[in-house]
Design a protein that fits this description.
Number of domains: 3
Number of helices: 21
CATH superfamily of the largest domain: P-loop containing nucleotide triphosphate hydrolases
CATH class of the largest domain: Alpha Beta
CATH architecture of the largest domain: 3-Layer(aba) Sandwich
Number of strands: 15
Low-confidence stretches: none
Shape: elongated
Strand order of the largest sheet: 6-13-10-9-7-8
Largest sheet: 6 strands, parallel
């Protein structure tokens, strides 16, 4: 894959690009310099002798050729991606970062530069910079990866690009570990990702009615792959929806060697993955999560399934995806409530194994890439050690035994992450009652939930309804509920049993 830098003249594309290439230990190509080397003329000379249209044709040919190569850092000219074909080619080859700078910064950087044909002094002696920036403002704003460079040293800009834009592929700790690629813009260069993973293009994209108009239809068109859209939401995570998916698989001629791509949140991934697990006794699938909750949790464990009227995920299987492709750019369309719901699962992972993550998670979107990776890593490590949940993986159930009961008692109208956050608080109360945790722990968790915009109780909830729903928990042992309970940030104990009085008291603490 390549890394491409775009932005207005003077934003630092060439200087920063060379530094990125050095850090990445790969080749750097400046498109303008590439053209100059091929023609023996400067860009200014080509503009003067051939005109802009002819130069743009040369530029297009160069970009299309470079986009076919691999492991390059490419710096484009300021007008290069006005051509949609150039943009499409570069985005298909890897992430594209748009560097930004104020007019004042650019003017200072370009003072006295006479090599830029579109920035020569106007009749009044002023650079035409403001006019150029205004004309291209909408284009610059359209890039998902933006990095302001004002007041930053080139070395700092390069480090930030590598931290935020480059794909992260954590090593697989075992054969059971999911293969994962986390990369901003990854859906744009998905064919490259699949090629490197040894996977074909999907035969079908499965998405839902929320995601299809935002991302699904465009992805299907870009890949030339049909799209199947199912009704969105937990209420449709049923065997009836499975029949719709099986029919779609048959209608589109899916075979045992076909690959299905799931594009959506946790509910959609569960359904598409279960359909893949059971169609023709199992076909491969790719999970492309579109919610924060799915990125940090639901997409990573290999659990797939559907609900029954009696409870969540009572029919399912372990069928890990062949690849998880997480593109944080899609989170830009995530409603604030769904962002907060995802933070609840990230907070849970901090509570399990990363006390600093528990303390540092911010409420504001987007979640910093480093924290997103840490939240993901907690689950990856646990799943690698216990893929089929014979032991330690039960830690990931913290907050879920009571949380799932709350979800069911609310008729699944409460977002999953909200229910889990409340469940974390209730189960901390239970841990205190069982003398497993310090009395201050519930207050600590409560404060963090409030800071992240998450509820700490549910109005109109009846504890008996929650308790009854918990009896259908699929993780019971010999008929008894087995809890994973927080002892302190970064420490959870699993396989804990409790008497009914303590359980009811914990539930009542979050019912108002």
């Amino acid at each position: 894959m390549n890394l491409s830098l775009y932005g207005p003249p003077g934003s630092g594309k060439t200087t920063v690009g060379k530094l990125c290439a050095r850090l990445m230990q790969c080749d750097f190509v400046d498109v303008d310099a590439h053209i100059e080397s091929a023609t023996g003329s400067t860009v200014a000379e080509l503009f003067a002798s051939e005109g802009e249209l002819r130069f743009r044709a040369r530029e297009r040919a160069a970009i299309l050729q470079l986009a076919q190569r691999d492991n390059l850092v490419i710096a484009t000219g300021g007008g290069a991606l006005l051509d949609a074909n150039n943009r499409t080619a570069l985005e298909a080859s890897g992430p594209v970062v748009c560097l930004r700078a104020s007019a004042a910064t650019i003017r200072a950087r370009l003072s006295g530069d006479r090599t830029r044909p579109l920035l020569q002094p106007a009749a009044d002696g002023e650079l035409q910079l403001e006019q150029l920036l205004a004309q291209r403002q909408q284009l610059y704003d359209s890039f998902a990866l933006q990095l302001p460079t004002d007041g930053l040293a080139p070395q700092v800009v390069a480090q930030r690009i590598l931290a935020e834009a480059l794909a992260w592929q954590p090593p697989r700790n075992s054969d059971s570990s999911p293969a994962l690629l986390l990369g901003s813009g990854a859906l744009q260069y998905l064919p490259r990702v699949l090629q490197q993973a040894g996977l074909p293009l999907p035969a079908l994209i499965v998405t839902d009615t929320n995601v299809a108009p935002l991302w699904g239809t465009a992805l299907g068109s870009r890949l030339g792959v049909p799209v199947c859209s199912v009704p969105a939401g937990e209420a449709h995570k049923t065997l009836a929806t499975m029949r719709l998916l099986y029919d779609a698989f048959l209608d589109h001629g899916l075979e045992r060697g076909s690959v299905v791509l799931a594009l959506g949140g946790g509910v959609l991934g569960d359904m598409a993955g279960f359909a893949a697990a059971t169609y023709m006794r199992g076909v491969r699938w790719i999970n492309a999560p579109t919610t924060l909750l799915a990125m940090v949790d639901a997409s990573l464990g290999g659990k797939v399934g559907v609900d029954l009227p009696q409870g969540k995920n009572l029919v399912g299987a372990f069928h890990p995806p062949a690849l998880v492709v997480s593109d944080p750019c899609v989170l830009a369309t995530l409603p604030p409530a769904q962002h907060a719901a995802g933070l609840a699962e990230a907070l849970k992972h901090g509570l399990i194994a990363d006390a600093a993550l528990f303390a540092e998670l911010p409420a504001a979107a987007p979640l910093p890439r480093a924290l997103l990776q840490r939240a993901i890593q907690v689950k990856l490590d646990i799943v690698a050690r216990d893929p089929l949940e014979h032991g330690e993986r039960a830690k990931l159930n913290v907050g879920h035994t009571i949380g799932h009961g709350i979800e069911a008692a609310c008729g699944y109208t409460l977002p999953h992450g909200f229910a889990i956050g409340i469940g974390l608080l209730a189960e901390a109360q239970l841990a205190v009652r069982l003398q497993l945790a310090d009395a201050a722990l519930p207050a600590t968790i409560r404060a963090r939930l409030l800071q992240l915009g998450l509820p700490v109780a549910q109005r109109g909830l009846h504890a008996q309804q929650v308790r009854a729903a918990m009896q259908r928990d699929k993780k019971k042992q010999a008929g008894q509920l087995a809890f994973a309970l927080p002892r302190a940030p970064g420490l959870v104990e699993y396989g804990v049993h409790a008497n009914d009085a303590d359980i009811m008291a914990a539930i009542e603490s979050v019912c108002t």
